[in-house]
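Box 3.1 A note on notation
Throughout this textbook, protein chains are presented in two layers. The first layer is the amino acid sequence; the second is a token string describing backbone geometry. Keep the layers aligned when reading.
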Amino acid sequence: MNQLSTLSAEHLDRYYRIITEAIGIRRHNELLAWLQGELQHYLPHEILIAAWGDFTANLICYDIVSALPGVRTESSNPQTLSPLLKGLFNRWVQLGKLPYTLGVGESGFLLEKEGPQCSLAKALQDMRTSLVHGLTDERSNQTCLYVIFSSERKLHESLDAMQLLLPYLDTALCQVTPLVPPESDARVLTEQPKDGERGGLSRREIEIMNWVRIGKTNLEIASILGISVFTVKNHLQHIFKSLGVNTRMEAVSKVAHSQVGSK
């Protein structure tokens, strides 16, 4: 039975407003206001992390949306957060790609390698429940994983709502340009550097490589990321030089191989 058919008129009206607002979101502040609005009635949370990319190859991009002070994408550490996201993704796959909840202690909402000064690490210690669900684009074979964290223990009541609202959550996120950590804090090592060579790619370069992996052209990547084709080409030239390769496919293969080998 269609879940919507069992809802009262009041709930149908609220869902309609939530969905309508999601379609019109274009800016990060609009996204935050939407998440903190009526959506909280169905998906109560303080932190949302949207992650996408190739989780198997550990090529993960993410965006953090939260009203908590200091809990921001640009102040996070990809090398610490990515293992948590990958673990949540693996469990989602094991459960047949169905939404699930975790209570504190089951996953341990801790970033153990982070110091106490990290706002995200401190905020996660106060969370009591998480809810995880995702979508896989069968055309590009790319997965988007959505994780919400709540200081309350009632997210198990939100499983049905997550299934209903996930497409609109995805629509809202896809219409907003993601924030990224500062370049200096976002180095993802691909292999041990040789003498005279740089041993890593920036977060932006990893993001570009992820789009290259799924077959996007330079023009398409530029459009998706909101940058010029010239900038994309410059990033690719630096990627090729850093990895010691000459073609796009060689770069994709080397990044994927080195990420798997570093597990």
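The beta strands are 47-54, 59-66, 100-103, 129-137, 142-150, 188-189, 200-201. The chain has a mean pLDDT of 80.
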